[in-house]
Design goal:
Blueprint lengths: L4 E9 L8 H14 L4 E8 L4 E8 L2 E8 L4 E8 L6 H12 L3 E9 L16 H19 L5
Antiparallel strand pairs: 1-5, 1-6, 2-3, 3-4, 4-5
Helix pairs in contact: 1-2
Length: about 150
């Protein structure tokens, strides 16, 4: 197994309104990144529209990305690092604690870990094949019903 890094992704719903302020979240992010040994090299904030903004940070051997939606109280967080000393999980958990969401979903991805061949199959299968089969069957059945009995 050749593991190259850890990506921790979080989806947070119903976050505390006061925690969603751009300046507060940016300063807290800088503080938590330092504590998690994710050394920030640059940080940038982009206001996408009235209710959405993003905070993007390039770190030593990694990155931190936050997308915030004021109206929905939604925040998505990605923390990734290839560094052995960095702890993206600690960073994401501290941010979750600060934002105090009503609901949250955490996802962990070991980058570069292909594991067994069976692990590489998608978890959610595409159901379009079944839908196409049903459409074709419906067409064939319709043709049988419309066909005159004399033939």
């Amino acid at each position: 197994m050749l593991k190259t890094g850890l990506l921790v992704a979080a989806d947070l719903y119903g976050c505390a309104e006061d925690a969603l302020a751009q300046s507060a979240l940016k300063s807290v992010l800088e503080e938590f990144a330092k504590a998690a040994h994710m050394y920030m090299q640059s940080i940038r904030t982009e206001q996408e529209d009235e209710s959405n903004y993003g905070i993007y940070s390039i770190c030593k051997a990694g990155h931190i990305i936050l997308h915030v939606n004021y109206e929905k109280g939604f925040v998505s967080i990605d923390g990734f690092s290839c560094s052995e000393e960095a702890d993206p999980e600690k960073l994401v958990r501290e941010l979750c604690r600060f934002l105090s969401p009503d609901k949250m979903k955490l996802t962990y991805v070991d980058r570069g870990d292909f594991g067994k061949k069976a692990d590489m199959k998608p978890r959610h299968r595409n159901k379009s094949r079944k839908i196409t089969q049903m459409r074709n069957m419906t067409k064939r059945f319709g043709k049988l019903l419309i066909k005159p009995k004399s033939l």
